[in-house]
Amino acid sequence: MKLYEKLHDIQTKVKGLGKDKKSHQYSYVTGDKVLSIIRPLMDQHKLLLKPEILDIENERMDYKTKYGEKSEILTRVPMRFTWIDVETGDTDVCLWGANGQNDWEKGLGSALTYAERYFLLKYFHIATDEDDIDNPDRKPVDTPAHQSSTPATPSPQADLATRQQIENIKTLRGLLKVNEETYQKQLAAIGSTGTLTKAQALRLIKGYEMKAKE
User: Fold this and answer.
1) Which pTM was predicted?
2) 168-179: burial string, b at 16+ Cβ within 10 Å, e else
3) 3-state class of 188 per DSSP?
4) Exposed end of the chain (fewer CB within 10 Å): N or C?
5) Domain regions of the chain by residue span
6) Which residues are CB-contacts of 183 (< 8 A; sequence separation ≥ 6)?
7) Phi and psi for 19 in degrees, rounded to 5?
8) Whole-number mean pLDDT of the chain?
9) CA 85/CA 3 separation, integer angstroms
10) How far apart are CA 114 and CA 97, in angstroms?
11) DSSP helix/strand/coil, 151
């Protein structure tokens, strides 16, 4: 397979990723989760992703919070990511960039972590939704202060696994080569009678992700 064929194959196998962490009332996909899915596929195709820092610009940011004054470092990092096919030596060079704002020594690390995560998400067009940290229309996670005092009428479909969860399961099954017989045994083990609930799907996904990291 040629380099672009390998990259395309990875794209076809990763349809979407469920968000696994919350911060400041928003949910997002962590870099660990992205790598746990993409890295095994890269290894399978013998691909390397080489990150290079082209420049570093630091700026002190002073602001006030309800707890008092605070200072952090805003780090801007233009970068170059290069896909390398180990078998053929073919490469694909992509310019990228990211910002990171954190405590004094952590600004650069935040920028690099953000750059890698979102480069992979955007390069492979991995689905994200309105809760994406970069989406201006994202909605905060519900807390008691945000919830209505009027109890919501439960929907018959409310507990069913989401389409994104189903896509995640398909992706992970393909990655781990889980055949139908094994999959049915796994469904029985979590008490599924054929239709997955959100909780059952989450158990399957977490189990597959742990297996993928081994």
Assistant:
1) 0.56
2) bbebbbebeebe
3) helix
4) C
5) 160-214
6) 173
7) -70, 140
8) 77
9) 6
10) 9
11) coil
